[in-house]
């Protein structure tokens, strides 16, 4: 199967308005039928994204700069976390709240331009997905691919779960599973045999170093090493992370509370509207029942009037015939 062709089709499909996805997928599968059986089947198997994932894909397609800002912020947050910089983490958490708010508003605007209104619940899923991309390098690549099929979430501890979250995982760069090499660039690796020989020479020459080498060795030993973070520094960094997480949780709780209030108001309005509609339906049913009864009465009266008219018509005809007979007899 042509993986590049499948990827090209997928990128086009996941950039479409939400309601057009299924029809476009069917058309793309039919159009690719000439490439064999595997490509059309793979196109048909592309899952329809959730509304939240679609909204994030719209950002990737129409406003990639917003995602680029969040990706860059995520890099700085991970660097601050690695260096246990509590103050930087608190400041970056505040910056993330601002950028997330802007990104969610932008996602709403883009979705509306594509003919879809984003509810408060969907907006919360979009925000969780964008927050996840700032916490995990793999999530960043998944979001920026524009191929999301479901929303993401991060707990701040484990890596973001991406299984089943992307339509074509092969099109997304893999996570870096090993840290970058710390070998100095001017220290090329030696072959095993050379390394073994060097070890033998070092062992043999260890006791026979020239006096001229001693000052250099002493200078190397006296070179100060980078100090490991103290317990206080680690605790301060952990406190900064905890405070940032607390602020983020408080903000999310406030958002959920507002969403709850909005939903309760919506439920109240819908309940009242439903009650009014039921009253209107009940009145309409009563009117319908009355109209049916009137219809039955009118039908019976019409039938009776038709019979009376027919009877009167027959009587008139008989009377006319009698008049004619009497007239003929008199002559």
Question: What would you say this structure looks like, in words?
Answer:
The protein is an all-alpha fold. It contains 11 helices and no strands. The longest helix is centred in the C-terminal third of the chain and has 100 residues. The N and C termini lie far apart (111 Å). 21% of the residues are buried. About 16% of the residues have low confidence.
Mean pLDDT: 79
Q: β content, as a range?
A: under 5%
Determine Rg (CA atoms, Å).
40 Å
Number of strands: 0
| Portion in helices | over 70%
Number of helices: 11
Helix and strand content put the structural class at: mainly alpha
Q: Globular, elongated, flat, extended or rod-shaped: what is the shape? A: elongated
Largest β-sheet summary: none
Which regions contain 5 or more consecutive residues with pLDDT less than 50? 177-228
Reading the helices and strands in chain order gives HHHHHHHHHHH
How far the N terminus sits from the C terminus, by CA atoms, comes to 111 Å
What is the topological layout?
Layout (H helix, E strand, L loop, with lengths): L2 H11 L7 H11 L6 H7 L6 H12 L1 H19 L3 H28 L6 H16 L1 H9 L46 H14 L7 H10 L8 H100 L1
Helix pairs in contact: 2-3, 4-5, 4-6, 4-7, 5-6, 5-7, 5-8, 6-7, 6-11, 7-8
